[in-house]
Automatic annotation (TrEMBL):
Gene3D superfamilies the UniProt entry points to: Leucine-rich Repeat Variant
Region (Disordered): 15-34
Protein name: Uncharacterized protein
UniProt cross-references to InterPro entries, sorted A to Z: ARM-like, CNOT9
Any one GO BP annotation for this protein: mRNA catabolic process
Highest classification ranks of the organism: Eukaryota, Viridiplantae, Streptophyta, Embryophyta, Tracheophyta
Superkingdom of the source species: Eukaryota
Compositional bias (Low complexity): 15-30
Pfam families recorded: Rcd1
Gene Ontology CC terms: CCR4-NOT complex
Organism, scientific name: Solanum verrucosum
């Protein structure tokens, strides 16, 4: 199985040359070696169509996915490959509820999702995931049942994590079309569910996705237009802040603060001014006290960017007086 944390490094590594191998082209045998390795990858893609060879092909391609720049287009344009991926994904739906997913089943589908993540990361194939209708739904929607699961067992956690990795790859590059698609298909409630009950890594990726959605005006408008959406997000963020007191995570805290900061931003679109105003007023009530005092002073001291974000958040919500009372962040060493 692919290394899961590595599979969540949304984005494609940068390699030179057609075929994308990272080995030096100055070596005399490099071109031949590169061609041989590319042929091996192409054969693995062909093996996906053979049910007897598929499991090994998925595993090997998942291991090699960051070594070949052209793997995502190859996967997308090779005949039947995306259909095979969806077939693998759908095949485990029956064991999601009641939760009977085995680790072997989870590993196999996680390899599929890791390959979909590299497709979602590539500039030539990213938007194709959103715009191509397969069977009865757009491709990302096939992942949503995995995000709806609540079992905390390892097979389900791996499945949620790699599914979030695909969505995270889509949002990493700013694109309003991607955000519009995701909010229209209700990705936010699914991320909020993971933010409440997932592992630290799953929570971090889910919060990153919500953060990227909020940073786009379409996503911010989606959250702030109705009080139900706003307060649901605020409640989840508040619960996460409280949990971090017992189990600190600077990485997760940074994403949470960035979400709060975006909710406190001044309006940039006149038509959204009322929604933004209500959101900022509401933050005065629901912003956790732990962000107003020195509870996370050690984390803030180590990360000047996070410290500035929190200071700006307090200025936006409460003005200079309260921000200064909150601990004098500027004076932290």
């Amino acid at each position: 199985m692919a290394n899961l944390p590595q599979s969540l490094s949304v984005g494609v590594s940068s390699f030179r040359g057609r075929g994308g191998m990272s080995s030096s082209s100055s070596s005399a045998g490099a071109p031949v070696n590169k061609d041989r390795k590319m042929q091996s990858v192409e054969q693995l893609v062909l093996d996906l169509s053979n049910p007897n060879l598929r499991e090994n092909a998925l595993l090997e391609l998942s291991k090699k996915r960051e070594l070949f720049q052209d793997l995502p287009p190859l996967l997308w344009h090779s005949f039947g490959t995306i259909s095979v991926f969806l077939q693998e994904i759908v095949s485990i739906y029956p064991v999601l509820s009641p939760p009977n997913l085995t680790l072997a089943q989870s590993n196999r589908v996680c390899n599929v999702l890791a390959l979909l993540q590299c497709v979602a990361s590539h500039p030539d194939t990213r938007l194709l995931l959103l715009n191509v209708f397969y069977f009865s739904a757009y491709i990302p929607l096939y992942l949503y049942p995995f995000l709806n699961t609540t079992s905390k067992s390892t097979p389900f956690e791996y499945l949620r994590l790699t599914s979030l990795g695909v969505i995270g790859a889509l949002v990493k590059v700013d694109n309003t079309e991607v955000i519009s698609f995701l909010v229209s298909t209700e990705i936010v409630p699914r991320c909020l569910c993971t933010m409440e009950m997932g592992s630290e890594l799953s929570k971090t990726v889910a919060t990153f996705i919500v953060e990227k959605i909020l940073l786009d005006d379409v996503g911010l408008n989606y959250i702030c237009t109705t009080s139900d959406r706003f307060f649901e997000l605020a409640q989840v963020l508040g619960n996460m802040v409280g949990a971090l007191v017992e189990q600190p995570s600077s990485r997760l805290l940074k994403h949470i603060i960035r979400c709060y900061l975006r909710l406190s931003d001044e309006p940039r679109l006149k038509a959204m001014r009322m929604a933004y105003g209500r959101a900022c007023q509401a933050l005065k009530i629901c912003l956790p006290d732990m962000l107003r005092d020195d509870t996370f002073s050690s984390c803030l001291r180590e990360d000047p960017i996070m410290r500035r974000w929190l200071q700006q958040l307090l200025l936006n919500v409460n003005g200079n007086r309260v921000a200064l009372q909150a601990g004098g962040f500027d004076h932290m060493p």
